[in-house]
Specification:
It is a single chain. With 241 residues, the protein is α/β, with parallel strands linked by helices. It is built from eight helices and ten strands. Strands 6-7-8-3-9-10 form a six-stranded mixed beta sheet, with helices on both faces. A four-stranded antiparallel beta sheet has the order 2-1-4-5, with helices on one face. α4 packs across α5 and α5 packs parallel to α6.
């Protein structure tokens, strides 16, 4: 179970988020965060990841994330920002294996099982033939898929992904969402994802959290909610649909 309780973020003199509260009580859920530009989607993910000061708390199975050490937090939460921040030369395989770092000791090399998992993740996203290629020479879309493969080898029960489709073409966006949905459902993890395309959200997410004015304006369930309810909630954000 993942719960956000009364989370608030203030940056400078502006309240970005206030009294944000929601619970995801079913394992294996892909949860989409929707909202207009500036609604606080990225801020929410960064606060949950412990990267922004905030009030309120975020609980994973009843344990406040704010109480965890840096190492325990890294083992519990995986955060994928809009930009990877990788600026040094390393192979695509090495980038994927970075996902194992929170579970390794100092100077410990990844064991065979982790290496095999990295190879399988690269194959899953279609980059098996790029394993030895320098990550910095990959296309923008290939880099995004490589980071997605890194997500697959991490063992964190909570996955946070901020626009992982930003550099992908239309076909690969759908493919990425399908892969992520299959991974989350099979592994029993909880994933919160921000995307700009509400159609991808409706196709692949189990739950949608709509942010409005720094708060949760609605929680939607695309597989069971009436179409009229979905249209009304989304029109409040994006205008007439």
């Amino acid at each position: 179970m993942f719960t956000v309780e009364n989370l608030a973020v203030r940056l400078g003199d502006k309240n970005i988020l206030q009294n944000v509260h929601f619970t995801i009580d079913t394992p294996g859920q892909l949860v989409g965060i929707l909202g207009a530009n500036g609604s606080g989607k990225t801020t929410l993910l960064r606060a949950v990841a412990g990267l922004l000061p905030h009030t309120g708390c975020c609980l994973m199975d009843g344990v406040p994330l704010e109480s965890l050490s840096t190492r325990c937090l890294a083992q519990t939460v995986s955060y994928i920002p809009q930009q990877s921040g990788i600026s040094v030369s390393m192979s695509a395989r090495e980038v994927v294996l970075m996902g194992c770092n929170p579970r390794l000791g100092v100077l410990q090399s990844p064991p065979a099982a982790m290496c095999a998992a990295a190879e399988e993740a690269l194959r899953t996203v279609g980059l098996a033939d790029k394993a030895e290629q320098d990550y910095l020479t990959l296309s923008g879309g290939e880099r995004q898929l490589c980071i997605l493969a890194r997500t697959f080898v991490e063992d964190a029960p909570l996955q946070l992904l901020d626009e992982p489709d930003s550099a992908l073409d239309l076909a690969n966006r759908s493919h990425m969402a399908a892969l992520l949905g299959e991974f989350v459902h099979a592994s029993g993890k909880t994933a919160l994802i921000c995307l700009h395309d509400p159609m991808l959200m409706l196709d692949w997410c189990d739950t949608l959290i709509v942010l409005q004015n720094g708060q949760v304006g609605a929680m939607l369930y695309p597989r069971t909610d009436p179409v009229e309810a979905l249209q009304s909630a989304l029109a409040a954000v994006y205008g007439p649909l």
